[in-house]
Design goal:
With 248 residues, the chain is an alpha/beta fold. 42% of the residues lie in helices and 12% in strands. The longest helix is centred in the last third of the chain and has 17 residues, at 178-194.
C-alpha cells in the first residue's frame, strides 16, 4: 500500500496534477494536510488538471496535521532539498525503493510526503520521516514542479514494484514468406533488366546481394507489395501529358 501526502498545497492545479500522476502509475490514496483552499478538491483547476483522475480527488482526505496523514504508515519518505544539520538519511529514490520492494521490505505501508510549493517541508515535518528522498537532478538547477516530483517518484516506485507491461498499439506485421520474397525479387530483376540497370549477360552479384539485403530486413507482406509496385512503375511507358487547351 502507498499513500501520497501533500502538505499545505497552494495551487489547486498542482493537486489535480498530482492525482493524475498517481493514477497513471496505479496509485490511489491521496491525503492533503492543511491545503490553502478548503475546497481544493472540487475546484475547477484541480478537476481539469486531474484529467479523468477525478476518482483520486473524490476519495482524497484532508487533515490538519502530518501526524494524522501518516497514521498507519510504517515508512515515510520526505521530499526536501534544503540541507539540514541532522535528520533522516538522504537517499536516492531508486536504490531505496529497490530495498522497500524487496520481500523483506514489503511489509511496510509507504508514505511519500511532499511539501508546499514555496517553502517545501519544515524541519519538524522532515524529522517525522524515516528517509529524505533526493531526486538526482542537474546540480545547477533542481527545482521541480510539485506534479512533476509526484510523477517521478510514482514512476520509480511503480518500477520497483514490477511496473506494468507495455501494451502493443498496433498488431505485429505479417511477415512475407520465402516464396513471396522470391517472387518480388524476380519481378524486381525483370524491371531492372528492362530499364538497362542490370545486364543479364553480366549480372555480377547484384541479385544475390539484394536477396541478402531483403532477408536481413525481413519484409512484411505489405512491404513486398510496395516493392512490386515500384518494379511495375519502373517499366511502365511514360504517359504523354495533354497540352493545355488540347482536345481528345
Amino acid at each position: 500500500m502507498t499513500r501520497f501526502v501533500l502538505i499545505q498545497t497552494s495551487h489547486p492545479g498542482n493537486v489535480g496534477s498530482a492525482a493524475r500522476a498517481m493514477k497513471v502509475m496505479g496509485f490511489s490514496e491521496l491525503v492533503l494536510v492543511r491545503p490553502r483552499y478548503a475546497d481544493v478538491l472540487t475546484q475547477q483547476a484541480a478537476i481539469s488538471l486531474a484529467s479523468s483522475a477525478n476518482d483520486i480527488l473524490e476519495n482524497a482526505r484532508i487533515v490538519d496535521t502530518l501526524e494524522e496523514a501518516l497514521d498507519g504508515v510504517t515508512f515515510a519518505c520526505a521530499t526536501a532539498m534544503t540541507p539540514r544539520d541532522f535528520g533522516p538519511p538522504v537517499r536516492e529514490p531508486r536504490s531505496l525503493f529497490a530495498e522497500l520492494a524487496a520481500p523483506e521490505g514489503q511489509q511496510h505501508k509507504l508514505g511519500l510526503v511532499f511539501g508546499c510549493e514555496r517553502f517545501g517541508m519544515s524541519n519538524d515535518d522532515v524529522y517525522r520521516c524515516h528517509a529524505v528522498l533526493s531526486i538526482p537532478t542537474h546540480p545547477d538547477y533542481g527545482s521541480l514542479n510539485l506534479g512533476q516530483a509526484v510523477q517521478l517518484l510514482a514512476y520509480d516506485w511503480r518500477q520497483a514494484l514490477g511496473g506494468f507491461a507495455v501494451a502493443a498499439r498496433t498488431p505485429d506485421p505479417k511477415l512475407a514468406d520465402v516464396q513471396a520474397v522470391r517472387g518480388m525479387l524476380d519481378h524486381l530483376q525483370a524491371s531492372l533488366e528492362a530499364i538497362g540497370y542490370l545486364d543479364p549477360l553480366v549480372p555480377r552479384k547484384l541479385m544475390p546481394r539484394l536477396t541478402q539485403l531483403f532477408n536481413r530486413v525481413q519484409l512484411s507482406l505489405d512491404e513486398v507489395h510496395i516493392f512490386r509496385g515500384i518494379a511495375r512503375a519502373m517499366v511502365e511507358p511514360a504517359r504523354p501529358k495533354a497540352r493545355p487547351g488540347s482536345e481528345d
